[in-house]
Design brief:
single chain, alpha+beta, five-stranded antiparallel beta sheet, 308 residues, five-stranded mixed beta sheet, flat
Length: 308
């Protein structure tokens, strides 16, 4: 096996500046070879539709169902040469409605009915469907399994219930397991058990409400920061305590990239504003504040002729 080098042992956040320098060098090299026209072509390719192979006769249609109010199917691949009967057979596997119980309507992008597909022998292309149109299934079977919300409303399904006496009489239940564990160790918790079985060290929940208050004093909203491990950069948006999180101080960060876990809202309470997956809460000791500009400030894909 290869011996670990000093570089292998270096913490991840220490390698972040080297990665950024390498990224800048790559972009500088690209500037020597890519013209503005090349950049625009690259943008069009990346932002364009999928390059997945697709026949000229293929059409992408959405599908809705008269009995399924909360369910729809998007961009089903259908061939314009398929008969309406074949289309119904394919839709049966998605909705469960029998072929003989389907009445199909074709709707345009505005939701207007443009045709009723009544003849099973006619090909789909006869009705001139376009990408984004919708096939609406009307289930004419009054006894359909999807009628009255039976496939969507779980409140209609009878739940299994058991009395306290019958449950207590059972062996090998979680309740019996928990009682036995608490007899052996009054401080036992499920989290402790999970950590033990996974071979991880269990950390007791933080009991100090002023935990890391000293570290938080140096952090103010508006400061730029770098969070480690990982060298993730962003802006400090909040400093303080958070309901629903372990006791102590937290720092709300708006990241430069979508690498967070929230949008500034934690446990139903909003602490700051940012786009989804751009926000996160970290301990004050897990970040540094200072001159940490956005990593990609030097990369501009605007229409300017001066930059790429």
């Amino acid at each position: 096996k290869r011996a670990r080098t000093t570089r292998d042992r270096r913490p991840t956040h220490d390698r972040a500046p080297r990665r950024r320098q390498k990224k800048k060098k790559i972009m500088a090299d690209l500037k020597q070879f890519l013209s503005q026209t090349d950049v625009q072509a690259l943008k069009a390719y990346v932002q364009g539709p999928s390059s997945q192979a697709r026949a000229d006769s293929t059409v992408l249609l959405h599908c809705t169902h008269s009995n399924l109010k909360n369910t729809s199917f998007f961009e089903l691949r259908l061939d314009r040469h398929m008969s309406i009967l074949s289309v119904k057979e394919k839709l049966k596997s998605h909705t469960g409605t029998a072929v003989g119980s389907m009445l199909l309507q074709l709707k345009d992008l505005g939701g207007n009915v443009v045709a009723t597909l009544a003849d099973d022998n006619t090909v789909l292309g006869f009705y001139s469907p376009q990408d984004g149109f919708t096939l609406h299934i009307i289930d004419i079977d009054p006894n359909s399994s999807s009628a009255d919300g039976w496939l969507e409303d779980v409140s209609k399904v009878q739940k299994y219930e058991i009395s306290e006496e019958d449950y207590n009489a059972r062996e090998n239940t979680y309740r019996k397991f928990k009682e036995q564990k608490l007899k052996e160790d009054p401080t036992w918790t499920l989290q402790k058990e999970i950590a033990k079985r996974s071979g991880k060290e269990y950390k007791e929940p933080q009991q100090d409400p002023e935990f890391q208050a000293k570290e938080a004093e140096a952090v103010k909203p508006g400061m730029r920061c770098e969070v480690f491990p990982g060298g993730k950069r962003g802006e400090v948006m909040y400093v303080g305590k958070c309901e629903g999180l372990p006791l102590g101080f937290w720092v709300g960060v708006k990241y430069d990239e979508p690498i967070g876990k929230n949008d500034g809202q934690v446990k139903g309470k909003r602490y700051f504003e940012c786009a989804p997956k751009y926000g996160g809460m970290v301990r004050p000791a897990n970040l540094k504040v200072g001159d940490f500009p956005p990593v990609d400030d030097d990369i501009d894909f605007s229409d300017s002729e001066e930059e790429i």
